[in-house]
Amino acid sequence: MIIKHVSEKNSILNKFLSEIRDKEIQKDRLRFRANIERMGEIISYEMSKTLDYVSKTVETPLGTKQMYVPENPIVLASILRAGLPLHMGVLHIFDDAENAFISAYRKHITDKDFKIQIDYIATPGIEDKTLVLVDPMLATGKSLVGVYKKLLEFGTPKNVHVISIIGSEYGINYLKQNMPENSFLWIADFDHTLNDKGYIVPGLGDAGDLAYGRKL
Question: Could you give the number of structural domains in the chain?
Answer without folding.
Answer: 1
